[in-house]
Amino acid sequence: MTPLVVIGLAAGGIATLAVFRLVSPVLAGRMVWPAGGAALASAAVTIPFGVLTRAGTPEYFIGLASFTLPVLILLEAAAIGSGADRTARWVLMLAWGVLVFPVTAVVPLLFTANCIRSDCRFEDFGGALPLFVSSTVFVFLAWLPAGIGRRRGVDRRALSGGMALVAVASFWLAYVIWLTSLEGDFDVYTPRILVAAAVGPASAALGWLLVDRLRDTHSPPLLSVGCGLLAGMLATTPGAVTVSFPWSVVVGGLAGIVAGLVFSTRAFQSTSVAVRWGLALFSATAVGFLAPPISGDTVGILFSAQVSALAIPAIAFVGVALYSVLVSAPAWILLRRHATRAKAARDQSRSAT
Fold first, then answer.
1. For the chain, which terminus, N or C, has the lower number of CB atoms within 10 Å?
2. In the structure, what pLDDT confidence band is assigned to residue 151 with cuts at 50, 70 and 90?
3. In whole angstroms, what is the distance from residue 105 CA to residue 129 CA?
4. Tens of pLDDT along 37-88?
């Protein structure tokens, strides 16, 4: 195991602690055993699957797996906010960790592995497809239990204190280190990755903050900045190598603006917070994932004028999104039925007393 892999694993641990702190108001004292168990199961499936199929190196899949736990904690917080009990959380976390992440991490790479033309490949440096596209889509059906389970919202004041600021800064730093470690070596691309990981989220934070101020959402500034940073990280990951400065600033800023607009759109205010988060971050990931075929070095449409370069990335993006919805649907439907029975039992108990 190379030193950079070890550094990436450590960065994943720091990111996990930071995310745990950020969503602690939603967890309300709960331990995230389902997320932890799903992360271990996911690594046990993904790493051998990727290596045996020769879709990538062991170091690459270890690096990807090191960032699944922070993602799973966010997913578990979304499940709790949608009324999921312990059993439902286990089902949801294992469904993503074992069925969604391994497939979306390996299969798209295998489909394009034998392509020799530059316009039939897609750039996904940090594994945005399996980590971010699939996870944001996974919560789209979180509205199913709406009004049935005991839903828990986020206290915005809990996310505006000094500890929250430390958590946001720690997560950002961990992300920069983790993304850089995926390169596997210190080479000519390392400075570009560092710059992208720094300026992309920063410009996204400014974009989201600008949207909240112009739309007068009354969101605490730290919450707006933290949301924007997360949107920028998702958007920066795919093109960290191929999208150079200053395009990385443009991509980050656009992702923050788009995600902020989606999150604050009145049409989505009646849905659960999990769904709004999913839609907003999915939009940011879409901006970032489509950035390499548009503004990426040599292969981007702006440089090569090859519109066909957009076809394969778009197909991969849509394919992963649809697969994630299909896998998540039975789990969310199960949660709805379980919540319905629980509500009926509570109503019967109250009427009996």
1. C
2. very low
3. 7
4. 999 999 999 999 999 999 888 999 999 999 999 999 999 988 887 777 788 8
* pLDDT single digits (tens) 327-353: 998 878 877 766 666 666 666 766 666
Place of tokens 């108990």: 349
Domain spans in the chain, listed from the N-terminal domain onward: 3-352
pLDDT above 70 as % of the chain: 82
Print burial letters for 212-241: b (CB count within 10 Å at least 16), e (below 16). Answer: beeeeeebbebbbbbbbbbbbbbbbbbbbb
DSSP 104-162: HHHHHHHHHTT--SGGG----TT-HIIIIIHHHHHTGGGGTTTTTS------GGGGSSH
Alpha carbon distance 144, 148 (integer Å)? 9
- For the chain, helix, strand, coil in percent to 5 are 75, 0, 25
CA atoms of 171 and 7, how far apart (whole Å): 15
Which one of 3.40.50.11030, 1.10.3430.10, 1.10.3210.10, 3.40.50.300 gives the CATH number of domain 3-352?
1.10.3430.10
